Amino acid sequence: MKPLLSVCIPAYNRAGLLTPLLDSILNQNYDDFDILISEDGSPERAAIAGVVHGFQSRYPGRIQYEENTDNLGYDGNIRRLVECAKGQYCVFMGNDDLMCVGALEAIAAAIQRQSDCGVVVRSYATFDVSPEQFNQVYRYFPDEHVLPAGAQAIFTAYRRSVVIPGMVINRDAALAVATDRFDGTLLYQLYLVGMILAKHSVIFVPQIIALRRDGTPPDFGNSATEQGKFVPHDQTPASSIHFMQGMLSIAKYVEEATQLNVFEAIRSDIGNYSYPILSIQSKRSLGVFIKYGIALAKLGLWRYPLFHLYFITLLLLGPDRSDSIIKMIKKRLGHTPRFGTASMGKP
Fold first, then answer.
1. Which end of the chain has a smaller Cβ tally under 10 Å, C or N?
2. Are 214 and 327 in contact (CB under 8 A)?
3. In this predicted model, what pLDDT tens digit does every residue of 259-310 receive, in sequence order?
C-alpha cells in the first residue's frame, strides 16, 4: 500500500548534514511515510551512500536511495524524485535542512481535511548554528488557509513556494505536467505549483514545518543545465538576475498554458516582496549594487513603489540594520506583512 507521504531529498554533497536531517524526519510522531533520497553525482557520493546505508540498516524498508547516472542538476533531480516517489504526496526537504517536531502529522491532517489538495505551502524558519535560535519565521497566514483551484491559488502560492524545505505537492498531479523545459532555473517547483493549482486547491499551514539552514554555500552550477548561469559556492549578481528571469518566464508560461490571468499578479507580488532579492547583493560594492538594482527594475519591478523603498533603505541603512527592522516588524505581527492581493489571499 502506498504511503500518504514521501519525504523527498535531493542530495548533492553536504554528507555531514544528512544525519541530523534524517534524524529529524525519523523522529516524527507519524508513521504513514517513507523517505526517498536521490544523489545527483556529487563528489561526496560515497560518503552520502555510507550515511544512508547506516540508516537503512536501522530502519529497514523506510528509506529508498537512488543514484543518478548523470548529474541532472537541481530541477532534473526534483523531477526524478517525483518519478521515483511512492507516496501520494511529495514532501521536499533540502539536504541541509531540518524537519520540525510534528511536521508530518500536521501536513497529513491538512491534506485529509481537503480532498482535492494539490499543494501545501508550509510555514518555515531559518537558523544559523542552533536550530533553537531562529533568524526569521516565514508564516503567510495566522491560521490554516485554503484557496480553491484557479488564478487566486496560483498567484498567492507562487512566490511563497521558492524555498523548498517543507513544500508539499500531489505526486500524480506533478507527474501529469512533468517537463524539462525549465531545467537550469532552479525553480521547477514553481512550475509545478502553477500548473497543479490550476486544477487543485492549495493549503497554507501556520505550523512551522521545516527549518532552513542559513549560510551554507550553494552548490548550484555544476550540472550541464546550470553551468554558465550559476556559480558553485557563490551567488553572483548575474546568477540572481537569471534566477529572477526564470521566475518571471515560468509565470508567463503558466499563464499561457492554463489560460488564467496570473502573470501581472505574480510580478506585483514579487515587487511588493522584493527585499530579499535586493538584499542578497547589497553587500557588494556600491556601483555593483546600483547596477544590479537597475537590472531588476528593467525586469518590470520598477512599477512597484515598495521595490524602490527597499532599494533606498538598503542604500541608506545597509543590509544589517534593514534586516533588523524587518525582523522586528514580523515578530510584532506574528506573520509576514501583507502587501497586495496575493498576500491577502483574495482575488
1. N
2. no
3. 999 999 999 999 999 999 999 999 999 999 999 999 999 999 999 999 999 9
